Amino acid sequence: MADAARLRLFQLVSPALPVGGFSYxxxxxxxxxxxxxxxxxxxxxxxxxxxxxxxxxxxxxxxASLTAALCHWRDAEAAGPGLxxxxxxxxxxxxLDGWLLAQRxxxxxxxxxxxxxxxxxxxxxxxxxxxxxxxGPAPGAPARPPAxxxxxxxxxxxxxxxxxxxxxEEAYLYGWVANQxxxxxxxxxxxxxxxxxxxxxxxxxxxxxxxxxxxxxxxDLWSGGVGAGLAxxxxxxxxxxxxxx
Length: 245
What we know:
65% of the residues lie in helices and 0% in strands. By secondary structure, it is mainly alpha-helical. The chain has a single domain (3-10, 24-136, 144-235), classed as Urease accessory protein UreF (Orthogonal Bundle). The radius of gyration is 18 Å and the shape is globular.
C-alpha cells in the first residue's frame, strides 16, 4: 500500500473519527453483567467467534460488492444524471444495504448501524465527498442522498479514500475489534495493557479473515452469532447501563 493510502486508512480507523462508535457495546454490557465475560481469555474467545462467524464477518464480506455498486452509481451519475445504469446500481446498493441491516435482530443495533453510517456520510460530505444525489419522491423535489447503514458508508469512505481490498476489510474488522475492546476495558473491567495485548493477539486472525472475506460472496455466508443477537436484544431491558447497545 502506498504511504498516502496507508495514512488515509489510519484515519478511517482512528478513535478520533467522529461517528460515535465509542458509545456502543453491541451486547457486551449484557454479557459482562451476566458474568459470561469476566476476563481477557473469555473476551478473546468471544471476539474470535464473532470474527469467524458473526454478523461482522458478513458485513466485511459485503464491502467489495457495496464498493462496486457505489462506484458504478457514482460513475453513471457523473456521465449523466438519471441514466438507467445509475438507477440500477443505486438499487443494487440499497438492496444489499437493507439486507445487511436486516441481519441485525436488535432495534438498538439497527439504530447504531444507521447512526454511525449517517455520521460517516456527513463527515465525508463535509470533506468534499458527498454521495451522488438522488431525486426526491415527487417531480421537482430537492435532490437528496439515500440513508445508508455503517457497512455501506464504510465502503463509500474506502472508495473516496482510494483504499482497496483486503486493506478495507482489515480496517473494518480491526475497527470493530478495537471498539469492542474499548468497551470491555470499561465493563469487564479489563486493564488497558490487557486490552492492547488482546488487540495484538487477534491481529493474525483479523488479517486471515480479511483476506478470506474479501473474496467471498456475503450471501453465501451464514452467521452463527446467536448469542450475540440475544445479548443485543436483552440490552434494552437492562436496569442500569453505560452504553447505547
